[in-house]
TrEMBL record:
Keyword Hydrolase among UniProt keywords: yes
Family the entry assigns: Belongs to the sulfatase family.
Source organism of this protein record: Selenomonas sputigena (strain ATCC 35185 / DSM 20758 / CCUG 44933 / VPI D19B-28)
Protein name: Sulfatase
Listed GO MF terms: arylsulfatase activity
Domain of life: Bacteria
Amino acid sequence: MKMPAEEAAYQERAREAGRIFAALQEKSTCGAYDDSFLSLLVEYQALFPQSENFDIFYAQYALAHDSVTVALEAAERAYEKKKCHYEVWKLLIECYKRLGDKRRLLTIEGVASRIYRFPVDVPIEKAELTESLALLSLAMGLPNLAPYVLGRARFGADGIEAPPGVFLGEFLPSFQEPADGWRYWSGVLVDRGRLHAKAMLLEALKETTDFPLAEDDAFVFDIMRAREIRSPLAIGGADAADLDGAQADDVQEGLHDVIVPLAGTEARQEVVFRSASIAEGRATLGKWVTSFFRLSERTEISSASPVILGKPIRLGHSPHRKKLVLHILIDALCWPEMKRRDFEPMPNLMRFFSKGVIFNNHYSVAEYTFPSLATIETGVYAHSSQVFNPTCMAELSTRYITIAEQMAHLGYYCVSTMGDATGIYPQVTRGYDRLMIVHGDASLAYRGVEQTVQTMRAFSECDPFILLHLMDAHPGSIADFQLPLATQVQLPLAERLAGAAEGVASVNLPHVPIYAEGVLEHMRSIDRSLGELFAYIEANYSEDEYIVQVYSDHGVSVFSDDVDYIGENQTGAAWMLRGAGVPQTGIVDELTSALDIYPATAHLAGFDAPAHLDGNLPKALGGEEREFVISNSLFPGQTYKLAIRSKMHEFRLESREPLDEDGMTDLRQPKLQQLFLRGKDRHSVEDEGLRQKFLAMARAHTAAIDTRGEVWREKRALRPSWFSGDRNEGKT
């Protein structure tokens, strides 16, 4: 059969680019950076202008001619496109060495050491020792563990050692410091009870190597944007109008009082307040515990020891904002199973959103949380944001503005009342002033809802944007996680004992009754707690004062006979909205993607959606209906898997080789191409014209993933070490 013109053109361009790539790599190996090298490079760029390979070769050429600044610009362009790329790191390291940029050199060498065992060789000044070791700990760690690190770098008897550790009672390191000076500080949450007990216990535990490994869910970390204050500080009064960068006339109603979060750095630390009405007042702060104080006039705050000052919160409402914007992420809520059960497990959820929009044909872009959360918060695919590799530390580029950053710009107080740490180190959740973090999949609805209601009550005099991330429905191996009580008691012993394998990632859990029943019981538990939250909202806000969205980041495998990372059960997700600007249409069958949450939020909250978004405003919300949705598995060490779904059809593609650490693989001749008719009687169909149409979509989507066979020889030679061991590390 004759190859269609579009596919034939791709294959011809790939062959020609491969020939030029090989010639450029050969000349680079020989150090022949001459005019013919540049001529070849121009030819290559004409074929694939967006490829990072052009920037890599150009940086090599510039370095060979001692144009270090030009080389760095090219290398940094390549880094924006591929943040886990060996050749890019080598170039950045050489540029930073020549320019004497020790901080950036340390970060890139640290990351390269984690992935490729690249030697770290950066001279560290004594005055910068603490900061440098913290930065190295971050670079050599996993991006989804905050405030834990795989290895907390420190000097030992035999030089630098790095046992597992935690950042607690200190600022979290980051590759790029925030421009406004408000850095994330890590404390411990005490929402009630004894003020000093947790810090006393944690101070003893934080230096032990077993503490981070345990990921004890008894401790909720309180991460907030803060500064350290070492001398008396006057705040409030006339200063209140511009504490958060908002315009003074933005607040049209309510108070101009300021809420000041303070945390102690010493046990039972005394802090002194002085103002026109209070000659001298004193309060006791808990060590590493945040307490809040309301200031109605200019007030001086002082202490004998350093104090952690959280970013002040200005009270008052604005007609340009809603009094509440609430996003609820129900991790792993499998919407296909909800539909099969006629929504029985979650009646409160369905009742509340029946007065809004419930998208009944919604899909995640990825199969697990790390890339999915980034997709939701940025509105772009993981290969664009470069937040996809759970073993490679990288930060989201500042060119991508997160939802929370957009809401903060509008003047909302942005807070995550409960969640995991997936987005903190990679900057996916930047924009939040405060994040309450719990590990061990223990962000449970009954705790999160209570914390959310407390926050809504406490900050009812301003306009909060709240993210509540619930983990109840996320399955885990029963060798590691406790089952719901009803599941333990009601299942027969044979079913109770099935599926107990240790170390199995949630995406690989089998379809056995114990996991299915456990997830369903957790869904019911979530719904009971959400019923309380929805009742509070309906009792305290009018319909035009709030916007509530509920969505899931992916589904689960436990309702499927076979593990399928991009199947209906694993990528079929939830999305529903209610409140101001949301039509009351109930269930709609329009195709939607997790990418669409960002433009929908922009539309409802009133900020401009960036032009680079991959998302689409759904027709149900005033936009246009999308033709198809894409889900893909972009996990290094495994084959690349792609599903493109239209209303009627589903196209599957899978690579022959595994993905490299940089998220790329050769897609010239995929191992698998299949076309299916969707529905209950899903079956394969033979339609060559339609298959080629979907293949063209796949080619467009994977342009930044496809190596087209262009292999960097030195990088490929290291491949055995990349893919040794369990490549499900980080995938939950």
